[in-house]
């Protein structure tokens, strides 16, 4: 596994770690990588030099059938995927060459210009393609919404960590012929031409700073201060595009050809041979950057993982008498009360009376959702001329995109159990953006509510 794959997985671990227990499995990582893994993942499992069968046997022994396994590398064949799939759970492949048949549940490819027709997949496989699903460290995603496009002109040069052909030095010599207030050069720990670079800087007569082996946070801050950059056509270009600026790229390795072509053709970056383009071209590029690199790729990826986790670990059942306590707790949740049409707190006695009435009412369909045997959500359909939806999710499990999944699976169960063709409706206060999004995602038709002031009605048929 190359450093590019490792850094991609580390960015993924950083996005997922707040929700999931993340274990990183790798063959003989470098000491510096061990430290990075510790910062982004919960556990490092090092593989010895095993043949493929022995490696698969060891990996499958670690799985419970409820895990999400992520593969990132060129060696994971279709047969390798099949063996892992047999252990249960869900399988994700991170790809950038689309040269094999995939049987994974999900395939990510963050390269631009990639189309679904390029892939050979199973009918159930979902593809998430393009830079809107790029696995980028949080430090860069967090600054995507605060792009700096003015101020002193500073230039960043970053050709990757090792840069064996020393594109850093040749690029710097060309760029020094242009007028910038300051020059920033970033190199990695494996860069072997430091003395030569330092000497060239010392005789340049320009204000040039060399930064070596810096943290993602420091690099993001450096990028924020640089209105122009020259980078390799690699992950570092995506990171700079999150921050935003006048970007020029160089193809420093054979596997960068596709990304180089996409970024320059899409107008997100310019060929270094064009250094520098007109202000009009830069302005157009900045608009395109902001649209695609919006800082939300981590949220999109997390939502996909949460949907897989939901399918593996969430079950639905009918409400029981002993659910009185948890439904009372949910009913008095501060956020829920604010979004309710009757925001007043509910007493235990009032809730008990209401609860007992609901569970004995044959026209009421009341479901509890459990995550790993813990109640996490409730969904209710009060039927009559229409089936009125009421739902809530425990505050510990909000933000996972489960609202849509709870309603979708709950409606399917309601369809199976209710033998009447009646419309399903939901009423949502105007300011409840999360619920509005849930109903819209499920294809409900929106209209103004006549029943409640300052609210909307969502409706679609059960058949």
Number of strands: 21
Put simply, the count of helices is 17
Radius of gyration: 27 Å
Tally of discrete structural domains: 3
Largest sheet: 7 strands, mixed
Shape: elongated
Calculate the mean pLDDT score and round it.
Answer: 91
Overall CATH architecture of the largest domain: 3-Layer(aba) Sandwich
Instruction: List segments where confidence is low: pLDDT < 50 over at least 5 consecutive residues.
Output: none
Give the class-level CATH name of the largest domain.
Alpha Beta
In percent, how helical is the residue content?
25-40%
Distance between the termini: 50 Å
Q: Major sheet: order of its strands? A: 15-16-17-18-19-21-20
Q: Could you name the CATH homologous superfamily of the largest domain? A: Glycogen Phosphorylase B
Beta content: 15-25%
Question: Which class do the helix and strand fractions yield?
Answer: alpha/beta
What name does CATH use for the topology of the largest domain? Rossmann fold
Question: Would you kindly provide a written description of the structure presented here, covering whatever features stand out?
Answer:
By secondary structure, the chain is α/β, with parallel strands linked by helices. The chain folds into three domains: 3-133, Rossmann fold; 139-292, Rossmann fold; 319-461, Gcn5-related N-acetyltransferase (GNAT) (Aminopeptidase, 3-Layer(aba) Sandwich), CATH 3.40.630. Helices cover 38% and strands 23% of the residues. The chain has helices at 3-16, 31-40, 52-62, 78-85, 138-141, 167-175, 194-202, 216-224, 235-243, 257-265, 279-292, 297-313, 324-331, 334-339, 348-359, 402-417, 433-441; strands at 23-27, 43-47, 68-72, 90-94, 101-102, 106-109, 120-121, 126-129, 154-158, 182-187, 208-212, 228-232, 246-250, 270-271, 314-318, 364-371, 374-382, 387-393, 423-429, 445-448, 455-461. The strands form five sheets. The chain has a seven-stranded mixed beta sheet with strand order 15-16-17-18-19-21-20, with helices on both faces. Strand 17 and strand 18 form a beta hairpin. Helix 1 (3-16) packs parallel to helix 2 and helix 13 (324-331) crosses helix 15. The two termini are 50 Å apart. The mean pLDDT is 91.
